[in-house]
Specification:
Layout: H1 5-11, E1 21-26, H2 28-45, E2 48-52, H3 56-65, E3 71-74, H4 80-85, E4 91-106, H5 107-111, E5 116-118, H6 119-126, E6 144-148, H7 153-163, E7 176-177, H8 180-188, E8 193-198, E9 207-209, E10 211-213, E11 219-220, H9 224-228, E12 235-243, H10 248-258, H11 260-268
Parallel strand pairs: 1-2, 1-3, 5-10, 6-7, 6-8
Antiparallel strand pairs: 3-12, 4-8, 4-9, 4-12, 10-11
Helix pairs in contact: 2-11, 10-11
């Protein structure tokens, strides 16, 4: 028996086209609002979105450059080395907020009287010329420095501020920490600890953000006001990175992050929204 073509089409099983999967990877700092936005879009729009933080900001750049993700999350800007490695990629940075890198310390250091450091003191600690908190106004205690992994956006912002160029930062042999949560836990549970971390992660209970002492003796703390007006020197943009103009699900996601609801997520996690920044 031969069936008419129209009837045959109705009898054959229908396999819907797979939904487009949006893959996002990069900075653990950007991940907080980005992952919550993904949850909302999964629930409300039934979008398939995968968010990961493998390799931090540099991981976001490389995975986008290799075509493994559609969006990178960055807490630093794309640099010349990134562009040289991926000459065919049209990197497009989309700012979603603003944050700051702070030098954070454990509670015993803070209670011991160290609330701010000069740039030179920080460099001397990084280069192991200063190894005890009593040499910078604290109590006798060995400095336990946890260095952010080179390539992390947090480390690159720190190194650029301290040395003018991350490539000029000396090689050091401190224990390394990766994501923000690991850094917070290491510093919070170690006496005499110091590290670089997103200022918004300093809870004022177990870990504390130091101010930067200027040459005239004034101290600039990493407050939202000082970040917004750019008085604090280690402020940084929080970025989504795409290859050219985003399309499809990536466009939907970017538009959500720039909407009022997406910007409220940025604020919820302790960062500055775009409209909070000084023009």
């Amino acid at each position: 028996m031969r069936f008419p073509a129209a009837l045959l089409a109705l009898l054959l099983p229908v396999h819907p086209l797979p939904a487009e999967t949006l893959k996002i990877n990069g900075s653990t700092t950007v991940n907080l609002p980005a992952a919550e936005a993904a949850e909302i879009l999964r629930a409300e729009r039934k979008l398939d979105i995968q968010v990961d933080t493998q390799g931090g900001s540099s991981g976001g750049v490389s995975m986008l450059g290799d075509g493994l993700v559609q969006i990178g999350m960055l807490s630093r800007h794309v640099n010349d080395d990134d562009r040289a490695k991926y000459p065919a990629v049209k990197f497009r940075e989309i700012q979603i907020g603003e944050d700051a890198v702070a030098l954070i310390v454990s509670r015993d250091v803070w209670d011991g009287g160290v609330h701010a450091l000069t740039q030179q003191q920080i460099k001397d600690i990084y280069e192991s010329k200063i190894t005890n908190w009593q040499d910078v106004g604290g109590k006798p205690q060995r400095i336990a420095f946890f260095n952010k992994e080179p390539g992390r956006g947090t480390w690159e912002v720190f190194a650029h501020w301290a040395y003018g160029n991350p490539k000029a930062a000396p090689q050091v042999s401190f224990p390394e920490v990766g994501g923000n949560e690991e850094t917070r836990n290491k510093v919070g549970s170690t006496r005499g600890a110091l590290s670089q971390l997103s200022a918004s992660w300093a809870d004022g209970r177990k870990i504390f953000a130091l101010g930067i002492k200027r040459e005239d003796g004034t101290v600039v703390d990493p407050t939202n006001e000082n970040i917004a007006n750019q008085k604090y020197p280690l402020s940084r943009s929080l970025l989504l990175l795409t290859n050219g103009e985003p399309t499809g699900v990536a466009r939907t996601y970017v538009d959500f992050m720039l909407s009022d609801r997406g910007q409220d997520l940025v604020k919820k996690h302790g960062y500055l929204r775009l409209k909070d920044l000084s023009k």
